[in-house]
Design brief:
By secondary structure, the protein is mainly alpha-helical. It is about 60% helix and about 0% strand.
Length: about 450
């Protein structure tokens, strides 16, 4: 009986002291936090200071007095203490030993920390409306930029002919300005070099002779297309007549062939007029030592054949003075020569003939320096024949090489005083060539 009473007393003592001790510990935590933050102690306990319950109790003492509790305030105050102390219930209170060392840079304020060590701000959650708005903006801008980037493909699909003309014109402008830059560079070399235009190679001489004429021809088209409002009407007109307003830089491969044949036929139409002028002045040279030889040459041309280069070099002195010289030729003869070489008609026709003859003569010398006619490419062979009065259409490489060899042999063996012989070489070497005759008289080449 005594043992049972002792156990009951001991149980009552433990149960009486456990709850007040935890309650007091919670109140002390709150009082400490409020004193440290606000320096104004706050207490929700109704007990006077002298009657506060201590954690030690004996079995003979009465139970602790009743405490009036404000549960909402207690919960709020405890949460505030937990938030300020940074305590997390999901993590242990004491950090592991390996994490007790803190970097010195973390103690610095955020303004003094390096940019790569500053803590990143957390993304603020967005509402569904904001997300839908951002997604819609991204979709619209993505589709718009893709449309602008592929706008040329859309135009090619809807307007194939217009886009084809646009690409041809755009590529032609690039090629034209590229050749114009080369021409300016070549002009400086020709002006500054002691040798003059003799210092240029064949391709540079061809460009030097071609570009001034092309620039004058294409200038109205480029200026008209660049004018506001007028360009919209002028651009279709330019491509409606590309042979009139544009140069070979803007032509397609098919147009180059067609226009080249057209110009070649226009030039060959004057071969007969030049030949008649030579025949008309033959009687006035009856006293010249080479009169008989030259009459024989004209007879060969009239019978459908051509003289050899040696025969032409034998009568070269007949072109130095008299009616076959540059100053002694009639106006009709000069005009026919200008049209036969495809030069522009102007007041200074004889000057143009002189300039053209010397440029082509320097090209022939450049061909000889660069290894001969057989080293020319297919395109260079065709252009060289076309420039010298032979239609290269349907001609093999061997035929073009053979004809150009005869030309170069005569051209490189004469002097400046024999310039009119050089100007008549298209007649003396190509008047009866089958390719030229087909171009003039066949209907398929019209």
């Amino acid at each position: 009986m005594a043992l049972a009473l002792r156990v009951a007393a001991r149980f009552a003592q433990v149960s009486a002291g456990s709850w007040p001790q935890d309650r007091q510990r919670l109140l002390q935590l709150y009082i400490t936090s409020t004193n440290s933050s606000d320096n104004k102690p706050k207490s929700y306990c109704t007990l006077p200071p002298e009657r506060k319950y201590s954690g030690k109790s004996t079995g003979g003492e009465a139970p602790p007095p009743t405490i009036k509790r404000n549960v909402a305030a207690e919960i709020t105050s405890v949460g505030k203490v937990i938030y300020e102390t940074g305590w997390d219930a999901n993590k242990p209170k004491d950090p592991p030993k390996g994490q007790q060392l803190v970097k010195t840079s973390s103690t610095l304020p955020p303004s003094d920390m390096p940019d790569h060590e500053k803590p990143k701000e957390q993304d603020v959650p967005r509402s569904k409306r904001e997300q839908m708005r951002d997604n819609m903006q991204d979709y619209i801008f993505t589709r718009y930029f893709n449309y602008v980037k592929n706008y040329d493909k859309v135009l090619e699909k809807n307007f194939p002919k217009a886009m084809q003309l646009y690409h041809v014109f755009f590529d032609g402008v690039k090629d034209f300005f590229s050749d114009m830059k080369r021409f300016l560079k070549i002009s400086r070399i020709a002006n500054d070099s002691p040798q003059g235009i003799r210092a240029l190679n064949r391709q540079e001489l061809e460009l030097y002779m071609m570009m001034p004429r092309d620039m004058m021809k294409v200038a109205p088209a480029l200026i008209g297309c660049s004018l506001p409002m007028v360009g919209y009407a002028f651009f279709p007109l330019v491509f409606w007549y590309p042979r009139v307003f544009l140069t070979s830089h803007f032509w397609t491969a098919e147009q180059r062939t067609d226009f080249q044949n057209y110009y070649m036929k226009q030039r060959l139409q004057y071969n007969k007029a030049v030949f008649r002028c030579l025949q008309a002045k033959l009687k006035s040279l009856s006293g010249h030592p080479k009169h008989a030889e030259f009459r024989n040459i004209l007879g060969l041309l009239g019978s459908g054949t051509h003289p050899t280069p040696e025969m032409l070099l034998d009568v070269k002195d007949i072109f130095v003075e008299g009616p076959y010289s540059l100053l002694g030729m009639s106006r009709k003869h000069v005009k026919s020569l200008v049209n036969m070489h495809g030069l522009q008609n102007s007041i200074f026709k004889r000057h143009r003939l002189h300039e053209h003859a010397f440029l082509v003569h320097y090209m022939d010398q450049a061909i000889t320096r660069e290894g001969g006619v057989h080293n020319l490419s297919m395109h260079a062979l065709r252009y060289s024949c076309y420039l010298r009065g032979l239609n290269p259409v349907n001609l093999s490489d061997e035929e073009m090489i053979e004809w150009l060899r005869n030309w170069v042999k005569v051209s490189t063996s004469i002097q400046g005083e024999h310039i009119t012989l050089f100007l008549h070489l298209p007649i003396l070497l190509g008047y009866n060539h089958p390719s030229n005759w087909k171009t003039i008289y066949c209907k398929g080449n019209a």
